[in-house]
């Protein structure tokens, strides 16, 4: 890891704080970006849901994350994109935008888009999933987050599912049952079952 990247990783770890919204200290730049996005969404009457690393942190597994991931309806994604193109301090970046003042990326996960090129699962509508309240933006409920992670096909998301199940072992069975209902394809359900088995094995060690 390059020195600059190492320093950024250390700063991110220092900013993690259990019990806080999104598992982050109030001064964290990603919380600052969430506040800014919440302001814009109120003005535009948009209703995103926080998923990704911030949601993982919020549900008790604190890990470093570089960006803010939002689940958006397709109309809301179009409106937010148009607004950010007009806003000072924002530029197009990867799967969304980056705030050049805060140095934090914002990724769009859009209803109906495939979660991965290799998978047939698609992102649900944010209005169709259960959420938990958080300030300034709501977070996907834990079972919903597990399903979203299982349908991505990415190693980082697999690890998140395992760690979250280990931390919520007392209610793992009900969480998995609810997550399975969200998944539409057999490969995604099989992946969730494999990750659940891995979590149980690691809990027994």
Would you mind describing this structure in some detail?
The protein starts with a helix and ends with a helix. The protein has 205 residues and is an alpha+beta fold. It is built from 8 helices and 7 strands; from the N terminus they run H-H-E-H-E-H-E-E-E-E-E-H-H-H-H. The longest helix is centred in the last third of the chain and has 19 residues, at 186-204. The strands form 2 sheets. Strands 1-2-5-4-3 form a 5-stranded mixed β-sheet. Strands 6-7 form a two-stranded antiparallel ribbon. Helix 5 (142-150) runs antiparallel to helix 6 and helix 6 (155-167) crosses helix 8 (186-204). A hairpin with a 4-residue loop joins strand 4 and strand 5.
Task: Based on the model shown, name its key terms.
205 residues; five-stranded mixed β-sheet; single chain; alpha+beta; two-stranded antiparallel ribbon; 8 helices; disordered N terminus
């Amino acid at each position: 890891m390059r020195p600059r990247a190492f320093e950024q990783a250390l700063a991110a770890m220092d900013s993690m704080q259990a019990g806080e919204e999104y598992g982050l200290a109030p001064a964290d730049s990603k919380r600052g970006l969430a506040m800014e996005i919440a302001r814009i969404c109120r003005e535009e009457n948009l209703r995103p849901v926080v998923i990704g690393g911030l949601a993982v942190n919020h549900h008790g597994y604190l890990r470093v994350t570089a960006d803010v991931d939002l689940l958006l309806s397709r109309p809301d994604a179009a409106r937010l994109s148009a607004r950010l193109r007009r806003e000072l301090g924002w530029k197009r970046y990867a799967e969304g935008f980056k705030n050049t003042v805060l140095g934090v990326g914002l990724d769009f996960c859009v209803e109906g888009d495939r979660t991965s090129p290799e998978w047939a699962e698609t992102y649900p509508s944010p209005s169709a999933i259960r959420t938990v309240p958080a300030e300034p933006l709501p977070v996907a409920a834990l079972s919903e987050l597990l399903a979203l992670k299982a349908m991505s096909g990415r190693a980082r998301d697999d690890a998140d599912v395992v760690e979250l199940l280990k931390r919520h072992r007392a209610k793992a069975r009900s969480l998995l049952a609810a997550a399975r209902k969200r998944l539409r394809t057999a490969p995604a359900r099989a992946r969730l079952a494999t990750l659940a088995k891995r979590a149980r094995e690691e809990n027994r060690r």
